[in-house]
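Posting here for the record, re: guanosine-5'-monophosphate.
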Amino acid sequence: MNFLEERIVRDGIVKPGNVLKVDSFLNHQMDIALMNEIGMEFHRRFAHKPITKVLTIEASGIAIGYAAANAFKVPLVFAKKSKSINIEGDMYVAEVESFTHKNRNQVIVSKKFLGPEDHLLIVDDFLANGCALQGLISISESAGATVEGLGIAIEKGFQIGGRVIRNLGYHLESLAIVDAMDAETGTITFRPQV
Ligand code: 5GP
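Prediction output follows.
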């Protein structure tokens, strides 16, 4: 097991409804040393790519995005969730359905901060059905930027997101892939990593 898998086994809680709670170290209280390790691991896995910016989505992507951007020494841009339907023309916009909140949000990024010259590493804390990543990919495409890769802390391998993104031809790296989890026993099974 790698450092993140070990931490998930130690402190993660399996909830009914295919939700893995990691709020004691990843997305409510945050273990900063662990965040930095995640950022450095993304840097190791994408070191050969000419990354100019890291792109993520608020709120829980921001800390992981910060750690990744710090490792690459590039700016972090995060997509903001917006309820407003009257988005001004100086924004890239995508629709994202939230897995945890079961609602739809428009996410926006100012055109000032992404453009055709950018080579992006897209990161997020979780990958479930892939809606958040697809929204970020769509924003990158609108900007004419190149998506060099996608880095996820925890992929739930039994949901379709990972397969969809890989089938689209993107280089997706997930530090921990949960292939099965059982809310009754608390058992978590990881996909073996090479
Ligand atoms: P997706 O868009 O891939 O369906 O879901 C990804 C988003 O939903 C992530 O940004 C994450 O915040 C949230 N999410 C999905 N599954 C889980 C989960 O099992 N636990 C937690 N804490 N968040 C999740």
